[in-house]
Design brief:
Elements (H helix, E strand, L loop, with lengths): L17 E4 L6 E2 L8 E2 L2 E6 L11 E8 L3 E8 L4 E2 L1 E3 L5 E7 L5 E8 L4 E7 L9 E4 L4 E3 L5 E5 L6 H6 L1 E5 L5 E7 L5 E7 L8 E6 L17 E7 L3 E6 L4 E6 L2 E7 L11 E7 L2 E9 L10 E9 L6 E4 L17 E3 L1 H10 L5 E5 L3 E4 L13 H5 L6
Parallel strand pairs: 13-19, 20-28, 23-29, 26-27
Antiparallel strand pairs: 1-4, 2-3, 4-5, 5-9, 6-7, 6-10, 8-9, 10-11, 12-14, 14-17, 15-18, 16-17, 18-19, 20-21, 21-22, 23-28, 24-25, 25-26
Amino acid sequence: MSRIPAPAALLVTTALALTLGACGGGAAKSGGAGGSAEEAPKTRIAVNLTGEKAKAGAPVVVTLAEGPRLQQVTVTDDKGGTLAGKVGADGKTWTSQRPAAPGTSYAVEARDSDGGTAKAAFATAEPDKVNKLNLAPGKASTVGIGQPLSIVFDHPVKNKAAVERQLKVTTSNHTEGSWGWMQDWSGKDRVDWRPKEYWKSGTKVTLTANLNGVDSGAAGGWFVRDYVTNFTVGKNQIVKVDLDNHRLKLVRDGQVVKDVGMSAGTPGGEKASWRGRTVLMAKEGTINMRSETVGLGDAYDKMVDYSMRLTWSGMYAHAAPWNASYFGNANKSSGCIGMSDANAKWVYDQVQIGDPFEVTGDDAKGTQAVNNGYGEWNLSWDAWKAKSALR
């Protein structure tokens, strides 16, 4: 990475005191016999970060040691970015709004109220570890009314509050929502943003994650870039699954569009289905399902059509023609919601990623956990807000 050398003529002291040459006004007349001369007044500044291996994570502070007032300060990095900041009320100090990022070279240019200018430069040390993240849903996607924003981090996040402060959600209709932290099913740190209630159809959502220069904390490393994603909320529809009556209904704009018989997980053991409010995670089409991957031994090994993932633990809605005799009258699957080929295809074609599946009934093995897919809708609003690091 290229480094911007500090202008030697401006490094007046070891504290990076820099002389600003006035370009006009305020001339001082020297004393003594033999005549007079005009000299530009001398003004000095100091930058809090110096050298080639300055510590990242702190704001850049430019201080006026002598002279009038700071008029403008510009701090640019070697990637073409600029650190915004403000001059304090006393006119003596400028502070950047965001911290200096690791592994980055910066150029500083200051101008005083008399027109004098000075330049300085520094570079931050390379990070020992870089933290990255995965965002859901995908950029420019259209999703259902239950889809949360979800961020899974590559490395641990100890400084959760510092990270959460840099995550800004903007919606087209001022939707109320909150972040909540958890350990993802994969074991990694994860934070989701859930509205108080389901999204309104047509809502446009943008996430701006200004994380460049934020320290994750011990064993986590630094973030070295910002992230932006956006999505639109699509049709207002909910899939309602009644385990006890063996029915699946697609409800759109409050009206039942389709009501089909189904067979869910066999009650009384590990083959039972989860109940609760979950969210359609993915439409995976035709996939190979093997019982050993979900801890059920060698019970099955099948190619399954119209597969719709509901949890990380392996609960799907899908076609299950081998269970045709049970549709509408008994739960006899290994945990999934099975339908006829025709009904599964119809549901598959109609649903959106992010559609809520509201599963009710006593024939269940419990309520879906918050991290087993998107289970946050099973928490009350107060319980969900309590999972924020800024509560």
